[in-house]
Amino acid sequence: MAVELDVFVGNTTIMDEEVYQLWLDGYTVNDAVKVRMAGGVLDECEANQDVLLSDTMDQYRTFQMCERLLQSPAKLANQLLFQIPPHRQTMLIERYYAFDDSFVREVLGKKLSKGTKKDLDDIGAKTGVTLKSCRRQFDNFKRVFKVVEELKGPLVENIRQHFLLSDKLARDYAAIVFFANNRFETGKKKLQYLTFQDFAFCAGQLINNWTVGAVDNMVEDMDVDLDKEFLQELKELKVLITDKDLLDQHKSLVCTALRGKTKAFTEMEANFKNLSRGLVNIATKLTNTKDVRDFFIDLVEKFIEPCRSDRWTSADVKLYLTHYTNSAHILDSFKHQAVWDRYMGVIKSCIFKMYHD
Amino acid sequence: MPGKLKAKIVAGRHLPVMDRASDLTDAFVEVKFGNTTFKTDVFPKSLNPQWNSEWFKFEVDDEDLQDEPLQITVLDHDTYSANDAIGKVYIDIDPLLCTEAASVISGWFPIYDTIHGIRGEINVLVKVELFNDLNRFRQSSCGVKFFCTTSIPRGYRAAMVHGFVEELVVNEDPEYQWIDRIRTPRASNEARQRLISLMSGELQRKIGLKVLEMGGNAVVGYLQCFDLEGESGLVVRAIGTACTLEKHSSGSLVNTHTHPNTAPASNACNSPSKDGKESPLAHGCRSTHNSPVHSACSSQRLSQNFSVSVPTLIFTGMGSGGSAGKEAGPLKTLLRQQTQTALEQREFPFFTLTSFPPGFLVHVGGVVSARSVKLLDRIHNPDEPETRDAWWEEIRQEIKSHAKALGCHAVVGYSENTSICEEVCILSASGTATILNPRYMREGCLDIGSTDHRFDDPSPPSCGFCHIPYDELNMPFPAQLTYCYNCRRQKVPDVLFTTIDLPAEAAVTGKGCLIQARLCRLKKKAQGEVNATAISNLLPFMEYELHTQLMNKLKLRSMNALFGLHIQISVGENMLLGLASATGVYLTALPAPGGIQIAGKTSGDLNNEQHIQSIQKRINDTIAKNKELYQINPPELTEEGVGSPIPEPRQRSRLFRSHSESSDEVSELDLSHGKKDAFVLEIDDTDAVEDIHSLLIDASPPTGFYTCNTETMPGIYNWTTAVQMFTSVRVLRLSNANLSNQSLNKIFTDLCENLLKSFYFKLRSNIPCCLCHLNFTVAVPEEELIQVSVTAVAMTFDKDQTQERFITKGGNETEEQLQFPLELCADSSSTNTQTSSKFSGVPENTIVSSRAASVDYGSFADRCSTWLELLRLKAHTIRRGSVKTSRRTQSLAHSVSSLENCSPLTEGRPRSLRSSRSFGGSSVTMVKMTPLSFLPGTRIIKYLGIINMFFIRETTSLREEGGVSGFLHSFIAEVFAMVRAHVAALGGNAVVSYSMKDCVLMENPNKNQAQCLINVSGDAVICVRETDQEPMTSMTNIGQSCTADGAT
């Protein structure tokens, strides 16, 4: 005696959020049943394991049928096959596009190619995310990347409109797309301490300030590519370290401002030239794609690590960078104030975000 | 040229990729009606084509308009090879032929392919211009309204109920034609879909003609079925109840219940006496309303033809009797001398309705059923309908005579169905024998004088229908009669079985529940006559056992009546399946059921004795538990000086314990002594033990759930607008070929019980809720397969109010409880006479029918308002009569207030459910579906026409689609989607009286193939929230649906 067929179809599609999550997390039907049983759902309705299995199967089938629609969420709203109230649709989409931070951290900045996809089982093993879930997340990244690649207009807004995502999730996807496009190196050991949210924040800063979109908002790829002109202009900042007078002047201005305000003053004074060279060198090298990729490494090596070894507090870093940026304005012979601000604004907020254990 | 059909193809969306090279499609559309075809231009390289075509015009006869569907085919243009079909849409344009229904069809339809399922959507506009046609001999019946709903549709009043209409058409099944060997499965499926669509159209037209002939304008309770006979053909048959319906505008609705005595006066033409005489169609219709094939000569000829060798058995169902689990036996007994009412002159005084306006039902006799086994390969002329007509005629005659035997002149809640396996076909019909109030029939109105006297003693509406219609001295079957526990004037049986819904006015104690009897019987595989005889021989035993089970389970739940009884017997190659479903309730008017007594075969054996005692204890415990669960605490009746002594219900007679005779004798003895309490189950062998175990195995629904197979559950009024309709199908493969009847029964019972458990679990977020209209269908699609399909609706209700009611009820106010019903009936019968001129529809007052003519007694005035009036009156009576607040007073008061809420007059009711939030830009209208005739919390403002759809789906890649479950899951979802799309295109937002008539699944996993046929029907409607006047717009609709349906 065996159940040959068992289906339950509601006019309004019945979906259990818990089961949906299990499905998204890549659990097999049997594993999902075990998890649900452990969760005590059986006590709710005098059910038994068979009932749970049957229910889980039904829901898994529904989700599989829905998956095609979830991949182009706009279709979900005007398809006729499933009658799903709009707020449930929103939930389905949001959850489908949600990702594990541990997973995204592994692929961030990597090319979203078949090669990377082949490594997914390793990543899965490393992060504890099931391969199925890894694939879904990876395919989501790739799909969003492909769609927005060809669109004009602001990146976040495009993602939000095309995939009907919440603002927060759309921003995260924008970061992922931005990182994948510029292939920022994030996997080095020195960067391991940074979370996805750290990078997402930095991506937001870069998108808003350093891309073409920051100045002109109707260009293709405007939010994905860095503003070439701006990168070129950054070369001009070199005077700050090559011109001996300017460097000394800058140092004295900063030191005057900092004196007595922090315990780390001596270290700041001693390290000023080193740190300034580091930051300005990063700026001047950004015309090279290779150096763009190493942007975050450089920030850590050239600035964050020295500060950390001198035991600066976050407040110290903040104080130092503020005065370092502002003092440049008082330098008479320094003419590149606008570029300097555009550059340092981003650097400042990125370093603030990245300066933690 | 009486009609012009116009169609416009606007756009398509989500089309499949047909050209792999470009990942796009060059789509165009063919629009076909009859033999005329138009084409749109090709819209190149797009998955979302915008054709925006001209209006394609078809000039056609209205006969064709009724028969033919509009056929829309979407194709992919291919320069070098044949164009590939993407899919089709069939649009039934019948709703456009009715002036009161939809005026335009406009919307997105899923493009359906029988192999691939839904492939994108197409936006279509359809209109019809009808020219007046005064042809007297017309073949069309445009304008006759069809309703699946088995009650008078809301918003209408029945000026006249004309009676039974039936029709049957036959055609060769395309699947069995020679050409099927060479054509593709797709072509074959489409030929079949198209043929069935045509046949349904023709059937509906022919039924419509009969209705017009009878002088009606509508068919209510329209029930259409398909018989896939295989080689011998494809039969589409339908039955229904012809009525003359009148729409009341919301204004007149208001009128009727604020000034009940003025509104009918303005409708003078509806008064019974006038109508009959003045209606131009009245003459002739009495004699001609039957189909010619039923004339005597033809049926004689036919009977000669088929009587050659077909073994026939017509099995007689039982009435309300058999309280000892005893077969009712041949019902030949009485023919009480009755007045020949006009109703009885009709060929078939049958009604497919299951609920009625107050006063329509006078007395209910019991269930009548007939079955007959036929051999399809013996049909002499398979392409003609005569043989099948004769078969049904025979069965209907049988039903009619059963009803007569019960002293009844009509059968209500009538339905017919078939079960086919190879060449054997079981035809079944069942209904409830009743005496109807003849004032609602045309003929009855004509001879008032002769019909009056049988209704000269008015009974209160809350119990009147329970009173026996037959002669107590000459009962058709053994039953114990007592005086009605409600009015104490008339005799009632100890149990009452019916196929109808619980009358709204019935007095019920506690809640009801779904009761099922399930049975499997093995039979030897055989061919032809041998097989038919074997089946014929098994049928009576099955009916008997099903009946016994029902009776036992009813008693176990301490209930005394079954409503909505439906017994299905399904035939397979090596077994018969029987499933009886009904809703058990405790009718206050009927005596309390006695317990179940276990009797041992051999007395003196100590072990056995103990065993029996333990079983007895379990049974008693279960009964006690059920009483609590279903809140059955009937008023303790004081012994009042009425009639014969009523046996003390609590006293358990141990009289038969020691008897060692056969149980039959015991039962007989039992019956004759009228000791209803001693319902004896004798344990004499293992079978009996099994039976008792299976009796106790039925789990009661978990807390927060109620179940019924009727429209609503007594005692629950405060429904919220949350409804969740669902269909579930389960197929079991019996691996072991050598199963016994006993183990098969167990398997089958578990299958049904597990299904219910699954429902409870799945719908747990809807608690507190009631699963209403649980409709189980069983089939044996192949040897060793058992298929059960269920369609039902989960309706949520407001818990707080129930609890409040429950608490008041739970209070130990027994004294007041017991007094109340007596007061009520005494009072109400007296007030009835006093106030008879104040409102119409009070059933008992036929005496005053001379006055009635002037105040529209002959029609059911607005049922709602009448009922309201009646309740108000009662409530008033109660208040005047006593200050006691008993449970019943409150329940009545509550009903009144809930009715007031329904009325469009009440304003300022908080629109608490309206959600002003709109989520995203969804363009899809939410369409609610329910098997019930209403949606709680809403009012139907327009019926848009009948939905009757037939789909075939086939696959040759079963594994890839997720096996049979995946295949059927998506097919059912697709069917729902297509129904919703059609309703939305008609401008509707809901389907009521939805049902899935057929779900025929054939699979061949080895070949990776499966095929499924689904037939669904229902009424498309526009409904508005109780308080709203205008239809919900799609936006608010969505908001509302979120609150309603979103609770998953």
Automatic annotation (TrEMBL), chain A:
InterPro entries, alphabetized: FIBP
Organism: Poecilia mexicana
Pfam families: FIBP
One Gene Ontology MF term: fibroblast growth factor binding
GO biological process: platelet aggregation
Entry's Gene Ontology cellular component terms: nucleus
Name by which UniProt lists this protein: Fibroblast growth factor (acidic) intracellular binding protein a
